[in-house]
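Please, is this right?
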Amino acid sequence: MPQTLSEIRAELDARGIRPKHRFGQNFLHDHNQLRRLVTAAAVRPGELVLEVGPGTGTLTETLLDAGCEVVACELDPDMAKIVRARNRHRLGPGAAHVMVVEDDCLDGKHALSPALRAALGGRPFVLVANLPYQAATPLMATLLEHHPECRGQFVTIQREVADRLTAAPDTDAWGPIGVTMRMLAEVSMIAVLSPGCFWPAPKVTSAMVAIVPRHEPRPVEPWAPFTAFVQQVFGRRRKQLGAILGRDAVGATGIDPVRRPETLTPAEWVRLYKALGARTPSA
């Protein structure tokens, strides 16, 4: 059974520690929501699962009970000790075992940390996690763009971020991460979670999302210059495209130069980049 809220509190009280705001520690204790996330991920016995930010290990133990091999990446040494202590009989590689990586999950914004890459070993895996809010967007983008061995991501994140992942063109939430997600994956909302599902209760609503990569060639290669171009143009999202990239140049692509970045569809972003990707957006 997953840990109860009383057990989570007791684990921390026994060590004289409190949830740390700087690590984004809001522990999901709603058992129905935990089961919903694991069910959506459709994990199988023996499957390798990456969990980032396990906290006291509530989700970790749910995954271990499902027979998964878990790599749990935890930046906070106090939480890493709790996960190891609670699962001392299940430490190490293999089915229904957990390997705790005490490290940041990322090396910069676009790569997994060396320690985490070593633990995963290039094997196929799935991400199932209640992600620390500050790491969520760069981690999800990194896995989607650079790790085809990740078969899917099933995560709890801030509702505002989930809205950006699932946004459509010409909406307030449409931005660079939405373009990436639309082009490379199928993204769907699993559930919306109230603050009361967590302890301590955050000041924002959360959401669970599923990100399943598309098995087809990318429309643009190399990918990094394209995403940099989208980021640069979106950085001036309130300006017309003609003011950003040149009126005549944009018009030559068949896109109206008076349009703004948030109105472009993924196909139009590709068309614009292929014609004008070498241009630096004007200030």
